Amino acid sequence: MIGRGLASGLLLLLAGCATARGRPVSAPGELAYRISGPSTPRAIDVEILRVRGGPAAFTFATPGAVERVRAQLEDGAFVELSVPASGELDVPNDWVALRYRFSLDDVHRWFGSTDLSWGVASQDELLLPGAAWLLRPRVPLPDLTATISTAGPAALLPWEPQSEGRWAVSSQQLAEPGFHAFGGRRCYLTVGQGRLEVAVLGAEHPLGDAALCEWIRSSAAEVLQVRAEFPVTRAAISIVPVQSNEASPFGRLLPSHPRSLGFLVGSQAVSEDFAKDIVALHELLHLAHPSFEPKETWLTEGLATYFTEVARARSGRQSPENGWEELLDGFDRGAEVSGGMRMDEVIREQGVAGRLRAAAWTGVWFLLALDLELRRLTQGLRALDDVLDALGNRPISLAQFAAQVDALAGQPVFEAVFARQRGRPAFALRQDLLDALGVHRSDGKVRFEEAPRAAEREALMRIKVRPNR
User: What is the DSSP secondary-structure string of 191-217?
Assistant: First the structure.
C-alpha cells in the first residue's frame, strides 16, 4: 500500500514533547516535517526530522491510508515499520527521521473512492484532510512545537505562515489539523472582522474564479445576519471542482485553529445554482456556534440548519414564507425518519448510522421553540442570536449553553422547553406552536394569519435590532 517507493521530498516540521514508549522526555521536543508534492500525481511525500527531543509514539487520526513508514536511526540504519489498523505507531527511541508517502491512488484502490474524508485531487493539485495524511505525536503536550515547510505548489494550511511555505504550529494545532490544499489559485476576502483565504483548485470553472469567490463571500456575509461580528478572524477555505450540476455537492468544516473548510463545486453548475446554494452558508454557520464537549450533534447540526433558513430570509435571499416552508418540510422529514421515537431517544441515538437527519431536525425543532420562548419572555429584547454572540465558538458543555440561555432569559427556560418535549414523540407539539404563531400550510405553500404570537413570528426572520451592551 502506501509507503512503497518512498521518494525524498519536501520537509514538514513538527515539534513534539510527549513520551518515548511511556518514558518522559526531559526537554521539550521539536520535529521538522518536510512535505514534497504533489511531485507525482495525487501523492505527497513526507519526511519528519527529529530536531530536538520529541516522542516515539505517533498516530494517524484517520488510519488506513498509509501502510508503511520508514525510520532512520541514529546509527544510520533504516527500519521499515508497518502501521497497525489502529493508526497508532511506536517508533524506535533512537529515531532521527521518518518517511512515508500518502497517495490518493492507494486510498482509491483500498477504499473504493476518495472524498473530503480522505482527500480529492484535481489535475496536479490536492485537497487533503490533515487527519488522513499527517503522522502526528499521539499525545499533544503544551511544550510540543512544530514547524512545517513545503516545496512545490503553494500550500494553503489553516495556520498563519511564518514565511512563504513555512508554518510554526503548536501541539494542539497538530491534533486538530483541518484541511490542507496543495496548489491552486488564491483569492482573499474580508467579511466584517474576518479574513478568508480561498484556494481554488483544478481547471478554472466556466463561471470563473471570481464568481466562486463571490459565492463564498456572499455566503459568509449572511452569517452576519446571525452574529453581530463575523465569528472568526481567519479561515482557510478550499474549493475543488467535480463533475456535477449542483453548486456544491458537499462541504465540510474540519476542526482546526484557525478554522478550515473544504467544498466540492459542480463544474456544470450555473449562476442560478450558486445563488440558491445553502451548503456554503450551512458550513460557514458552523463557525458561529460553540463546539460542544462531549459532542452534541443534534444541537450543532440543528443550529446550522435552523439559522441557514433564518439567515436567508433576513438577507432577502428567500421570503419568510419560503423560510417557513423549508422548516416545515424539514420537520416532516425528521418526523418520518424518527418513526415516532421520543425526542430524548432521538438525541440519545444521534451517533447511530442513519439517525443524523432525525437528530438534526429534532435539534432545529427544539431551537425554534427555544428561540421563540426566549423572545417571548424578554418581550423581543433577546433571542437565540444573542446566546451565540455571548458564547462565541469556544468549547463548552451543554450545561453551559443552557446556563447562558437562562441568563439572557432571566429565568430557567432551557430545561423548561426541553422538559415539555423530551418524553413525547419528536415534533409532537409542532402543530400547537404553529397555530399560536399563525403559520399554516396548504397545497405545499405557507401562509400567515393573525395569531397570539404573530409578532414573534414576524421578528424571527427579519434583522434584529440589538440592544446596546
Answer: ETTEEEEEEE-SSPPTT-HHHHHHHHH
Which three cell numbers mark 22?
A: 511511556
Identify the sign of the CA torsion 329, 361, 336, 280: positive
Task: Compute the distance between CA of residue 176 and CA of residue 193 in angstroms, rounded to an integer.
Answer: 23
How far apart CA 43 and CA 40 sit, in angstroms, is 6
Residue 174 · residue 143 · CB < 8 Å: no
- Please report how the helices 320-338 and 297-315 are oriented relative to each other, as an axis angle in degrees rounded to 10: 160
Go through the domains of the chain in sequence order and give each one's CATH number.
11-112+130-176 (2.60.40), 185-285 (1.10.390.10), 317-460 (no CATH)
User: Residue 462 and residue 10: Cα distance in Å, rounded?
Assistant: 51
Q: Does residue 17 surpass a pLDDT of 80?
A: no
398-409 and 384-391 are packed helices; what angle lies between their axes, rounded to 10 degrees? 120
Alpha helices in 349-429 (DSSP H): 356-377, 384-391, 398-409, 414-422
**Which cell is 350 given?**
444521534
pLDDT, tens digit, for every residue of 197-231? Answer: 999 999 999 999 999 999 999 999 999 999 999 99
167 vs 155: CA distance, rounded Å = 11
Q: What does the block give as the cell for 343?
A: 425526542
The three grid cell numbers given for residue 428, joined into one nine-digit string = 409532537
List the one residue out of 159, 175, 140 whose CA is nearest residue 61: 175
* Grid coordinates belonging to 285: 454557520
**Threshold 0.85, pTM exceeds:** yes
